[in-house]
Design goal:
The chain is about 85% helix and about 0% strand. It contains 19 helices and no strands.
């Protein structure tokens, strides 16, 4: 692969923004992984489990409090190019009203909510506060993504991650018992600081608080998607909650540890998706279907290779990140990576539903998958333990992918992809997983297969570099 090819490839807005968003996301999440050995030593498996359950419920509370309005950012960029800042300020003010209402409800019924979610009443109030201010940060970052302002995105993401980590270590080290308060406390403080600053900036820039036009536009898109968003959270995180309830916080802590390792796959997708979605929306609007079809092919190829690499090196990552008390979760990691791979696959046809504003289909599919996951967990976790949570998630995401693929073919007249690239990707990741479980205890053979495969793939990429340069 020559220098001219690399330079030409970097000129692509999709590639350039994708690289920088990937760097930013990896840096932020990289801090999380680098500090995992610290937190797994500072926190007991029980404290780690409570923190995991808290972050799971945080996603639920955030979606309910904000009515899923984060999902409207990319659509608004296309439909309100001139009034995009006004749209942002008005939506943030609308969410402020919702947050005040939920803060009152949470205070009045905190004991009842506490008993339902199996967290104390103090954490219930924390969830509401962090849900609101965290939304402001996420909304602002999503807007920067849509505008390809990756430098500002990097500044916010990297600085907040560093401060969060340092503050967490200080707080945990100075708390004698219930050390999970230190980890959760750092999240809230950073969300408050950054959320407040970004809120003021958005309001000064947009200068519009009340706009029934913008509110109606946002709610029409977000409300039908709330079931989808909540079901997505349940699908992704209900395992931890149910393991905590059925087996205990220690088992939930071990499972949370495994999930954090497996989430490397999710982080890769999240980073690239920040660049993919705005690019996809723009090219759909301009009807560049052939270009989209080509990019999807390589998009799937990239993630298939990434999944293969992560599965094969997962034992070493796990041992590096945790202590022996967490090692039981290492067997879960490859399964979790496979689950995230199918989550990536379903996001490709799901983006068509978001673009065409057919969010009702999103909600139905995710609800079915979430219910399937919940029922299977209820049946299998007591019988087979925490590992059942990983298997039920894989099954649920496979169902979700097949559902969204079918729906996308029905709501769009133009075929922007075929099933062939998906089939190749699935076959590749399945074979990789089977081979891994056969050779996982022989690290020499495992890394020999990994290196040989990467050499062959590198040769194939070089041979087809001219296709990769197409825009």
């Amino acid at each position: 692969m020559n220098i001219d090819f690399i330079k030409k490839l970097y000129k692509s807005r999709l590639v350039k923004s994708g690289i920088w968003f990937t760097i930013g996301t990896f840096f932020v999440q990289g801090i999380s992984f680098v500090t995992m050995p610290i937190f797994t030593r500072l926190l007991s498996t029980s404290d780690y489990g409570i923190t995991g359950v808290y972050t799971t419920w945080l996603s639920v509370f955030t979606t309910i409090i904000t009515l899923g309005l984060l999902a409207t950012v990319n659509n608004a960029k296309v439909d309100f190019q001139e009034g995009y800042d006004e749209y942002a300020s008005s939506i943030l003010f609308l969410v402020t009203l919702f947050a005040i209402m939920w803060l009152i409800i949470g205070f009045v019924f905190k004991k009842q909510i506490s008993s339902i979610i199996n967290l104390n009443s103090i954490l219930v109030m924390f969830l509401i506060i962090q849900g609101f201010f965290g939304f402001i940060v996420d909304f602002s970052n999503a807007k920067l993504n849509a505008e390809y302002k990756y430098k500002k995105y990097l500044l916010i993401s990297i600085s907040s991650a560093i401060i969060n980590t340092i503050l967490a270590i200080i707080l945990i080290s100075n708390i004698k018992s219930e050390k999970y308060y230190g980890r959760i406390g750092s999240l809230i403080i950073v969300a408050l600081i950054y959320g407040t600053v970004l809120y003021v900036i958005a309001m000064k820039k947009g200068k519009k608080l009340i706009s029934f036009e913008y509110w109606k536009y946002g709610l029409v898109i977000s409300i039908p998607a709330i079931v989808h968003l909540l079901s997505g959270v349940i699908l992704q995180s209900v395992d931890t909650v149910m393991i905590n309830s059925m087996i205990g916080s220690s088992a939930a802590g071990i499972y949370t540890f495994a999930y954090k390792i497996g989430m490397i796959m999710y982080i890769v997708w999240l980073a690239c998706n920040k660049a993919w979605v705005p690019w996809f929306y723009e090219n759909m609007k301009e009807k560049k279907y052939d270009d989209i079809k080509l990019k999807i092919k390589y998009y799937i190829m990239l993630f298939s290779v990434m999944g293969f690499i992560l599965i094969f090196i997962s034992p070493e990552i796990g041992k590096l990140m945790g202590t022996k008390k967490f090692y039981k979760g290492l067997d879960y990691v490859p399964l979790i990576i496979i689950g995230y791979y199918f989550q990536f696959l379903y996001s490709i046809p799901a983006n068509i539903e978001f673009y065409t504003k057919n969010t009702k289909f999103l909600s139905l599919g995710t609800l079915i998958a979430a219910l399937t996951n919940g029922v299977l967990n209820y049946i299998l976790i007591p019988r087979y333990g925490a590992v059942a949570g990983a298997w039920t998630t894989i099954i649920s995401y496979i169902l979700l992918f097949l559902y969204h693929y079918y729906i996308s073919l029905r709501i769009l007249d133009v075929r922007i992809y075929t099933f062939k690239p998906f089939a190749y990707g699935i076959l590749y990741i399945v074979l990789s997983s089977v081979i891994f479980f056969i050779v996982k205890n022989n690290w020499i053979l495992r890394y020999g297969i990994l290196i040989a495969t990467l050499i062959i793939l590198g040769y194939e990429i070089k041979k087809n570099s001219e296709k990769l340069m197409q825009k």
